[in-house]
Design brief:
Elements (H helix, E strand, L loop, with lengths): L4 H4 L3 E2 L5 H8 L11 H5 L8 E5 L2 E8 L2 E7 L3 E2 L3 H13 L6 E6 L3 H7 L2 E5 L5 E5 H6 L6 H13 L4 E4 L5 H11 L9 H15 L1 H4 L2 E7 L3 E11 L2 E9 L6 H16 L4 E3 L7 H8 L5 E3 L1 E6 L1
């Protein structure tokens, strides 16, 4: 007797022990959106209620929709199974629960293949689109569009002679963590619950940094100590900047860590693009991300099979 979809999909919690198996399958993803990175799953597992299962050498992730935490939803499966077969399993799994299948954070280039599998409706997730940049642009900041960015960096260098960039290591991780405890609290008037979640998950990443396989740098000045840090991961041709924190009272610290991290990672890895992730509907974040002139906005969708 063939196993049911429920028997095939034995979902488990995402935790630090899940990292090796998640990394194996996420490395097979072809999308440049941040939802199919290790940090995209690990950091947001609590908020989106992510759980994972492995069936037929394929990764299945269930949780909730990015724009509706009450709506059960799945990520696109990743692994050996063809898309139509993995979708069939998910539809059976939902049918066994008298539910319809909804996929969330589906990249735009997957919409047409899903239309070919079955009848679907789509909903664009406008607050969850990713900002993609040419890596060389952010590493060099050449040209007139980046005049203000270069001016901020020059101001930082002038105000802070003797500044240094440091790779995050065992020697400085505690100092970086202490810096974040002091300067990383979300604004008390923030109306975005994701800011609070992101703060807590950044602390979780720092506490487990050397188990995650991420890469990062910190910016230090003689007078202030650590004033900024950035953490990301490279997947294929793209650097995903998952965390970037700075002292806002140190002029130019944000622009400087942004450029230094891009330059550092471009030297180490064969990357073409940098993904600086979503603005989650925050107008301030949206303006900041647009000011770096993205080469593309990676749209995402909810897809429901009907």
């Amino acid at each position: 007797m063939n196993a049911t979809a429920t028997e095939k999909l034995q979902f488990r919690n995402v935790d630090i022990h899940s990292i090796p198996i998640l990394r194996k399958y996420l490395s097979m993803a072809t999308s440049r959106t941040c939802d199919y990175t290790l940090a995209g799953i690990y950091m947001w597992a609590g908020y989106f209620h992510y759980k994972y299962a492995i069936a037929a050498d394929t990764l299945f992730i269930k949780g909730v929709a990015e724009n509706n935490l009450q709506l059960p939803a799945f990520s696109l499966p990743i692994g050996r199974l063809p898309l139509n077969e993995s979708i069939r399993i998910l539809r059976e799994y939902c049918y066994e629960r008298n539910k319809t299948l909804t996929l969330s954070a589906v990249p735009a280039d997957i919409i047409q293949p899903l239309y070919e599998i079955g009848n679907i409706t789509t909903q664009e997730l406008t607050d969850w689109a990713d900002y993609l940049y040419n890596a060389a642009d952010l590493a060099t900041l050449k040209g007139k569009p980046y005049n203000k960015k270069r001016n901020h960096i020059n101001r930082f260098c002038s105000d802070n002679p003797g500044w240094q960039m440091e790779v995050i290591t065992q020697r400085n991780i505690q100092e970086i963590t202490d810096f974040y405890k002091t300067y990383g609290q979300p604004a008390v008037d923030s109306c975005y619950v994701t800011a609070v979640v992101e703060h807590d998950q950044t602390m979780r990443v720092l506490q487990n940094y050397f188990s995650l396989g991420f890469e990062g740098v910190a910016l230090r000045t003689p007078s202030h100590g650590i004033v900024a840090f950035a953490i990301g991961e490279c997947c294929r041709d793209t650097l995903f900047v998952h965390i970037e924190k700075m002292r806002h009272d140190v002029s130019g610290a944000g622009e400087t860590i942004n450029k230094l991290f891009a330059e550092h990672m471009l030297k180490l890895h064969d990357i073409t693009f940098i993904n600086r992730e979503e603005d989650v509907g925050d107008p301030g974040l949206r303006a900041a991300k647009m000011s770096y002139h993205p080469c593309s906005i990676l749209k995402k969708y909810n897809v429901t099979f009907i």
